[in-house]
Write a structure and sequence with these properties.
The protein is α+β, with helices and mostly antiparallel strands. Among the domains are: 16-70, no CATH class; 209-337, no CATH class. It has helices at 75-85, 87-93, 163-168, 172-198, 207-219, 225-240, 248-276, 283-297, 306-337; strands at 16-19, 36-39, 47-50, 66-69, 103-110, 113-123, 131-133, 137-141, 146-155. Strands 5, 6, 7, 8 and 9 form a 5-stranded mixed sheet that branches.
């Protein structure tokens, strides 16, 4: 199988992906080596990133060469799909084109200072992560009395050839738009939550931020103490298995709080996205995946502690699943009351 190559193009050119491959020769159990994406770089040397795709069923594609033009998606349709599920998220991306450029999405004044948020969205293949919402860059202009937060969201529709999705949406354009909308929906939830945390007090908050704040409040409440204490205990143990530095104890405590909030953030975002797009979701699967990510976020592990580190991840997986289940049961009981 040959590689996949993409390059920078002029605005008039279309970003395209050329895939060569004799997929018909691959059995369903085979695992082909990942192709490679080459990105143009201002430097003299190109940058390569491995890209893996699920082994596709060749019956889903026309014989011979497959040519995919990423520009076949319609921004208006993607925004429509998102608007059907959330007005908050639609307002966030309404003025933003998916060209990687920053667009002003919100400005509010608090006293003598103006707070502004810029958002850039780019669709591209870059590996096996569905999307990335980068931590916003904060720009302070004392001269203009303005604080600007610049957020970048990358959308990676690498699951375009996933069998279940292809069977659900045979039309390539529909499938691409659905996938971009789903990923963008999820990543923009993270962006809205951050904006909600940075908004000056007294300003109206979005429904998404208020829902997340309520979930986080419950996750930190005494009602959830057995489950939340178990998860935070695992996080502390994982931190203790890493190297110790002068003054690292206080930093580790802060890390536990940050990573715990991260796990609640992902729980909220994944469930809301999957329900919005009529997808199946599982606390067991989410807790398994994110227990590993949480362990990495807690820091590196000393070589001598590899075995207890892996055991602690398994324990975190189980405790995190219990925590997520309790959160769901609480939401279920609240909806019955309402």
């Amino acid at each position: 199988m040959q590689g996949i190559r993409s390059r920078k193009t002029s605005p008039k050119e279309k970003t395209s992906l050329l895939v060569h491959g004799a997929w018909g020769t691959l059995s369903s159990a085979s695992s082909p080596p990942p192709p490679v994406v080459q990105y143009s770089s201002p430097s003299a040397h190109p940058v390569f990133y491995p890209v893996s795709f699920p082994t596709p069923d060749c019956s889903l594609f026309p014989p011979g060469l497959l040519y995919l033009d990423l520009n076949i998606y319609r921004e208006s349709m993607i925004k429509f799909l998102i608007r059907e599920q959330s007005e908050d998220l639609y307002r966030l991306i309404k003025k933003v084109h998916f060209d990687g450029k920053y667009y002003r999405v919100e400005c509010v004044r608090s006293g003598e200072w103006e707070h502004c948020w810029d958002l850039a969205i780019r669709v591209q293949f870059f590996g096996m992560m569905q999307g990335l919402a980068f931590e916003p860059e904060k720009i302070v202009s004392r001269k203009n009395r303005k604080i600007i937060y610049r957020s970048l969201v990358l959308v990676n529709p690498y699951e375009l050839w996933e069998r279940k999705l292809a069977e659900r949406l045979w039309n390539l354009q529909d499938r691409l738009e659905f996938l971009i909308a789903k990923i963008l929906f999820h990543e923009c939830i993270h962006t809205l939550i951050f904006l909600g945390k940075t908004l000056p007090s007294g300003f109206e908050q979005t429904k998404i931020f208020l829902e997340f704040r309520e979930m986080l409040k419950f996750a930190n409440s005494e009602k959830l103490c057995p489950e939340s204490c178990g998860v935070q205990s695992c996080l502390r143990n994982l931190a203790d298995l890493g190297p110790n530095y002068p003054g690292s104890s206080e930093k580790k405590l802060d890390q536990v709080s940050e990573v715990y909030e991260f796990l609640i953030n992902e729980k909220y975002s994944i469930k809301k996205t999957d329900l919005a797009f009529d997808l199946s979701w599982s606390n067991k699967k989410v807790s398994r995946n994110y227990s590993k990510i949480a362990a990495l976020k807690m820091g590196p592990c000393k070589e001598a502690n590899k075995k207890p580190w892996k055991k602690e991840i398994n324990r975190l997986h189980k405790d995190l699943e219990k925590l997520y289940d309790r959160i769901d049961s609480n939401q279920g009981s609240e909806s019955e009351i309402n």
